[in-house]
Write a structure and sequence with these properties.
The protein has one domain. By secondary structure, it is an all-alpha fold. The chain has 2 helices and no strands. It is rod-shaped and about 65 Å long. The model has no long low-confidence stretch (mean pLDDT 77). The chain has helices at 2-29, 46-57. The relative contact order is 0.09. 69% of the residues lie in helices and 0% in strands.
């Protein structure tokens, strides 16, 4: 019975990690990037990156 709880705990932990990774990938694909574009010069945000690139091109 002890092994059952260990396996159940491992499966639950893996499910949580996979869920977090999938949610971050979905947010990244939607362009959220992790900062929701409310910051200045965020390296992870594609909108901030595009704005910096436009600034360099001027």
């Amino acid at each position: 019975m002890h092994v059952f709880w260990q396996v159940l705990l491992i499966v639950a932990c893996v499910a949580i990690v996979v869920g977090v990774v999938v949610s971050r990938i979905v947010a990244w694909k939607k362009g959220k990037g992790g900062c929701d574009c409310g910051c200045s010069d965020c390296a992870a945000c594609k909108y901030c990156k595009e704005a910096r690139q436009k600034e360099k091109d001027k």
